[in-house]
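quick one before i forget lol
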Amino acid sequence: MCGITGFFNPSAQTSSEQMQVIVQAMSSTLVHRGPDDGGSWVDAEMGIALGHRRLAIVDLSPEGHQPMVSADDRYMIVFNGEIYNFLELRHELEQLGHRFRSHSDTEVMLASFSQWGLNGAIKRFNGMFAFALWDRQAQVLHLGRDRLGEKPLYYGWINQTLLFASELKALKAYPHFQAQINRDALTLFLRFSYIPAPYSIYEGIYKLPPGCVLTWNGIEPYSQPTSYWSVKETAHKGIAEPFIGSEQEAIAQLTALLQDAVKLRMVADVPLGAFLSGGIDSSTVIALMQAQSRQPVRTFSIGFNEDVYNEAQYAKEVARHLGTDHTELYVTPQEALAVIPKLPTLYDEPFSDSSGIPTFLVSQLAKQDVTVSLSGDGGDELFAGYNRYFWGRSIWQKIGWMPPKLRKDAVGVLTHISPLVKNSAFAGFSNLIPAKFKPLLLGDTLHKLSEILAVANPEMMYTHLVSHWKQPETLVRGGLELPTALSDRQCWANLPDFTQRMMYLDAVTYLPDDILVKVDRASMGVSLEGRIPLLDHRIVEFAWRLPLAMKIRNGQGKWLLRQVLYKYVPQNLIERPKMGFNIPIDSWLRGTLRDWAETLLDESRLRQEGFLNPQPIRQKWKEHLLGDRDWQYYLWDVLMFQAWLENN
């Protein structure tokens, strides 16, 4: 796990010394991603500079130093990530006559490129990666990213210079960087709480999409990424070639795939552990780790004193049953709040998934004892774990039959009465509602239902369910919504079932642009490598071949994954409502964070900055403070942009 950066402009007249100074300044911003070593390489004649920061995980010797050159002297690489099947590839390459001086996966990558070429090699890699590969013979630069988007890679052109980096802070260190805010990307952020690929918060700077390579020779017009693997093609193939075995055969095959994926991700020359929430996904990963380990696996959990947000007690029970070496930390509000000032620097662009706070805290906890930590991310998207898969399907089945006029009339009835009045009416019998559901104001729920009734098709309903600000263009001055995988029908997969379509859209948007961003920045922010076994591409491909009946059964998701877990953990330790990794932002905004938020949401400040329309923001802030409505997610979006803007 590392940080990479560099630039390429064959027409630039820059000396080697100047190029070294620039690329070293860029890579120095990434020390947190690679505190163990740093290196740079330049070719002034070709105008290419590569910078690297190293977090040593496999082969801790100086032989793993980057930038690294191939044995045939053709390729130079900087690489961030891990190639988990590098030992298998190394053996195959040795049979073909290659010899190795180190035990690193980077050297195996280089030999693979020499043997099979760019496309042939990258399709053989099982891993998480982002790399920049300079081909001396062809005089072209290749930028590549792993299939699911576990590792980040930003790029863009400043005048005639192609810049790239693991994080935006490295690009900003380039002398001529132009930090012009992209108002259209800001509009997308306010809808989704993250900025979806390929966009970034800055004009002209992009995220390389997952499963893509960008190649540029420095002469032709700016290149576009090309795909070597995609969730869309994988989904189509899975539907065309479905799994036809029995349930027991499916359980056996998934178990074998998971065992191997976990085993490959346990290879490290440094201490290794895992995050444990006590849920299906992380418990499965840790159960398979412990089954393949001679020593107790180190596991880490974060707890909260508020019961509605706390899963630590469940994680502790699972850890006790599996016999792991478990560490838990109950976080005080003060400890959680102390993370908030770090968020703008940690993410480099607006990012408002509040679960990034506990993710950072559990990473910080784990880093005290290990350098690598496995997690259970990805299970929801692959095996149907999110509540919206059940809510969305159920809601559409109930309203999809309604003629447009009847829907319009129903919307009129529901919206005629304000949410505040509905909430007031609800208050009279709120004592009859279980405590865990009381935060869900009935008025808000009915108002959301009225909005859903107005949509024309299931995909529009899905977009509504995953949106925060429903009309963000009215909030951003001069902002227009750019096309995304949700709005561009050409990006949609041709899948027969609405639930499958929701899972697909999550896999190409929410997973890479929210979940994986969160995990990468939170872990790398404390120099911890995060590994995600469930996103092994073999598991992804197998999951798309499974019928929905093996994922959803009796109104519950992850059926097949649960069957694997039940071999190791009793069902009673696992079965409970899904909680998520949340924190009480709603009450904090009315209490401890109120003054901080009021400063950032000040009407005159918003007008002076000129990005956001104050009126709807102030209205929601007022309603939230009074307790009339719960606008925590809407307000947190705005606050995270304001905090980022202040920091930048």
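fyi The longest strand covers residues 75-83.
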